[in-house]
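Section 3.1: Structural characterization of target chains.
Under the original work plan, the team committed to producing a structural model for every single-chain target entering the pipeline before any wet-lab resources were allocated. The record below documents one such target. The sequence was received from the expression subgroup and is listed exactly as submitted; it comprises 239 residues.
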Amino acid sequence: MSSSCSTVSQGREEGRKTPLPGPILLLGAPGVGKGTQAKELVKLWGIPQISTGDLLRANVAQGTELGRTAKEIMGRGELVPDSLVNEMVAVRLAQPDTAGGYILDGFPRTLVQAGWLDGRLAAQVTGLPVVAVSIKVDYNQLLRRITGRRNCPVCQSIYNVYGKPPQKEGFCDVDGAALAQRADDTEKVFEERMRAYEASTAPVVEHYRALGRFAEVDGDRPIAEIAAGIVAVVERLRQ
């Protein structure tokens, strides 16, 4: 096991042994396993994952002033503006569990949001700036992950016809049910999602790259090794 992997394992077994990381923007195209890695890092560092999608849903469900405004805007078929999203993020970042850092998921999506966040953090007497880490996987490998995915509608087991096929083609190993493919797990939909992701993410990536606060990790490895890689690049970016 590599020293970085040992650090990750030790952090899990003995409590939080690695330095608190500050705010981290975790980036990754559809299918790279960003959600899995976010959960790994949350467990390792004991910091929260902050998703703007979750924040929006929570504010609407709780009927907050921000949530009511967002619901009205979405009811008109319009996009929630950056200013409103920023306000929701500001409220969340004011909570005490963010003091040691947090994993940002889906924010900042635009240069306007990135500028707002950088300015907010720079105004704090203590604290660290955002570092951005992108999980990279080869396009063709991502395509196989997405289009090869099959799930059991009964027990929810997940297979992949390329990497983790069932023993009997088309049927679940656990209960024998016919496996299904999600309607959006097609090459056409994947290509559209990739184009949208790259178009929206590229300016934010270049923003943090120019500031010397961006790194990439290889996402075509076991989960623990990817997590260790993220830990290593965060530590390097913080030096």
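Confidence is low (pLDDT under 50) at residues 1-17.
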